[in-house]
């Protein structure tokens, strides 16, 4: 199986997409199923130049679908020096696609997608659900349901609208605000601090969206568009708003952190006023900002380290390829790196803005509440 991960990706994903003919691609109809690998054979062949090459034959038994029970063979050319963890093994269950438009003898007739880890996903989901119920009880379960609602909105509203050619950024802002309105009352209850956190979080999301728009305007678009987004652009039957898609990703990436910081600031303000209802507004504001600064330090670390952790292999690759004469700015401007940098910066600035905004709103609401209750 010589380096055939890239080959698998090319053979699998490209024909599986519904690509319009006017872009020069042929739409390939496929039947999808699970299969069990019954045998792996590595054969040495010679090309027309006399060079010896490796060919990997993966023999599979189809487990479901219209070809259930049949034995199929996928052939991949290339070396077999991949890390052992990445190689298929006898007995693995995999997802496959069987083409009805490509000749059965062709290497593109069968595509192997991924190992079937459905059982592992289910077990991990059950473990997470049990942890949420045991620790968070009803409130934890309700928070999980709120997260599911947000994800459903992304899949059922944002993605279909984007695929129809609508600009994704306004839709993303709306979904983010709906998520804030649904999630924060579950976390903190229907209280004054919740209303302040919702307003502050909404302001933070809108500011992050505006900042993302500015970044999209003054930065060259190719610098923050990933290969995945280009694939979506070329595979779509309509013109996808790539700039809006990039900016929407920045807003979604900042959403969770902004909600966390806003509810923390609103809760801190409530505790300050519970301890001293007659505290001066300026003093209360300074106290809340002091608390927010401490929270912000760990929150920014969490935000940036999350991006670093997800891009660890990319960082290792850059370290291996970095040469003494190469400018460090060349590394920072490498598209995948630049994309993560821009996301981190916009998310962090969104947090910075959300803290004083939520503090100001919360203090004003508390002062009005206490004045109303004292008269």
Overall residue-averaged pLDDT value: 75
Largest sheet: 5 strands, antiparallel
For this structure, the CATH topology of the largest domain is: Multidrug efflux transporter AcrB transmembrane fold
DSSP strand tally: 5
CATH architect. name of the largest domain: Up-down Bundle
Shape: elongated
Overall helicity: 55-70%
Number of helices: 10
* N-to-C SSE string, H for helix and E for strand: HEEEEEHHHHHHHHH
Distance between the termini: 79 Å
Text of the CATH class of the largest domain: Mainly Alpha
Name the strands of the widest sheet in spatial order. 3-2-1-4-5
Structural class category: alpha+beta
Overall structural domain count: 2
Q: Which residues form runs of ≥5 with pLDDT under 50?
A: 1-26
Proportion of β residues? 5-15%
> How many whole angstroms does the radius of gyration measure?
26 Å
Could you write a compact summary of the structure shown?
The protein has helices at 4-16, 118-163, 168-188, 192-218, 227-235, 242-275, 281-310, 312-321, 328-332, 335-374; strands spanning 30-46, 52-62, 71-77, 93-99, 110-115. It has 375 residues and is an alpha+beta fold. Strands 3-2-1-4-5 form a five-stranded antiparallel beta sheet.
Topology:
Blueprint: H1 4-16, E1 30-46, E2 52-62, E3 71-77, E4 93-99, E5 110-115, H2 118-163, H3 168-188, H4 192-218, H5 227-235, H6 242-275, H7 281-310, H8 312-321, H9 328-332, H10 335-374
Antiparallel strand pairs: 1-2, 1-4, 2-3, 4-5
